[in-house]
Amino acid sequence: MLDNLLPFKSHFLDRNGNKLHYINEGQGEPVVMVHGNPSWSYYYRNLVSALSGQHQCIVPDHIGCGLSDKPDDPLYDYTLVNRIDDLEALLDGLDVKQNITLVVHDWGGMIGMGFAARHPERIKRIVCLNTAAFHLPKTKPFPWALWVCRDTLLGTLLVRGLNAFSSAASYVGVKRKPMAKDVREAYVAPFNSWKNRISTLRFVQDIPLKPGDRNYDLVTSIGDSLSLFANVPTLICFGLQDFVFDKYFLEEWRQRMPHATVHEFADCGHYILEDASDEVIGLIKDFIATN
Hints:
With 291 residues, the protein is an alpha/beta fold. 39% of the residues lie in helices and 18% in strands. The protein contains 12 helices and 8 strands. It has helices at 45-51, 80-93, 107-118, 144-151, 153-162, 164-172, 181-188, 198-205, 216-225, 247-256, 272-275, 277-290; strands at residues 11-15, 18-25, 29-34, 55-60, 100-106, 123-131, 234-239, 261-265. The chain has an 8-stranded mixed beta sheet with strand order 1-2-4-3-5-6-7-8, with helices on both faces. Strand 3, helix 1 and strand 4 form a beta-alpha-beta unit. Helix 2 (80-93) crosses helix 3 (107-118), helix 3 packs across helix 9 (216-225) and helix 6 (164-172) runs antiparallel to helix 7 (181-188). The model has no long low-confidence stretch (mean pLDDT 96).
């Protein structure tokens, strides 16, 4: 059972008839952790355990991911603005409206900073882990594997038929040493059928690459909003062997958030909280304590 993979109590929010699952552990200043694709709240399990003694740790599963419902297209529009709306509804419902430490990874950067752009006054600290909140850097070619998934029928068959995206990520997303078998199985467990892999594909198809693409203007505005956080303490931890969020994205973060404290991990990949769990969690704890 999926429920047994998380050592925390499950909570659910109704979003127009779809159940959005979230973790809500501990008390104190809130730490909101936003995952990406193709992962789920499981990604943050060790960070929640490390912080929940002093903080309220809130971790949603996006609709279509983890323990949340996985509706077909007519019942949910899998697109960025709805992801931001969902996060906003969750935090408003929990009355979490100040002193937020926002931790973001992968698509979580766009979703989390999309929320932050709406409510900059609520954000106290930002932690970025192999993510983006802006368009593909001009220096970065769009990865062919994402192009196949985004723009071809073959990609649909691979992602929804064979779970190629989630499964491959569990292997190539770490570099120091392979994921333990039980951890890898936990990452892919929610995406166990054609029906349940809908969000994995829709996330990739939702990447805007040119003007006119859905969300292109929204991503532009989220990128522009980063200037609002020039005085917000920011920690950036990046695994440089990520095949998407690599040195080109890190350089863009440096340009847009020059005040940030940056830690590069030359031997780590996309799932930095798996590759360098103790180091990154230690950096996050120190960062919160000193800011």
